[in-house]
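Page 42, continued from yesterday. The earlier attempt failed because a stray header line got pasted into the input along with the sequence. Redoing it now with the clean sequence only.
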Amino acid sequence: MSLIFGQLVIGPPSSGKTTYCNAMSKFLESLGRKVAIINIDPANENMEYTPAVDISELVKHEDIMEEYGSGPNGALLYCMEYLETHVSWLIARVLNLKDHYLIFDCPGQVELYTHHKSVSKIVEKLSENLIKLCSVHLVESHHCSDPGKFLSSLLLCTTVMLRIGLPHVNVMTKFDEMKKYSEHLPFNIDFYTEVLDLKYLLEQLDDDPFTARYKKLNAALVSIIENYSLVSFIPLDISNEELLLKVKNAVDKANGYVFGGNEPQDVQTLLACAVGATSATERVSSLDEYV
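This time it went through. Structure tokens are written below.
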């Protein structure tokens, strides 16, 4: 059985998961790749694409709310547990797409990735069936404008990376909106994307009247993030093909597609993905236009 490659697109609500799935699928198709989007978000009502597989064919979010009188979050957890129990349904449909590159559009509730087990169990079963995934974690760029929000995002990314157990790429989305608050950022863009020395972030937290009350907690959280040293972000504006290409190259390297995919790869493209370059000529997109 040949390998199937793909992306597991996760992130908090409004981080742009569905928009990303649609944009990335079109971009990959423009490069000659056959792409199938798998929707496993039962509450996804505004899909910008036609899914090849949709969880609503198995279980409907609104039906669970009505039948059990549960709220949206409770119904979502039920649906994901139901999918875990019937994961063979998903695997059978995914294996029928063996000549496609897969993009999984996932729910946004963070508890599914921080302490609930269904998603990680589903991913484990997919991996057992030679489906090689990379988790792509989306975080909105506006979190950079508030030290507390940025720290929360770093902690969430670290937690998810450790819990999901997949090769992982963090993406800072909606970078085209950076101009709205770039004047108020205490640090340059590289500080946020490369997650540089966080003692400076700690100083910002200590200067804020609200977060200053939690100095010891802030220091402990920063220490955890720095000790693992796992988080960095690739900036993304979906209208910018150079940035889309940079994300694509990082994901292809992480899930192994660059070494085992079905499309032909020349030597320059292989090297570009291996070093994370934005193109075979290592042309790096300038971020000046966003700040």
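Notes: The longest strand covers residues 131-140.
Reminder to self: strip header lines before submitting.
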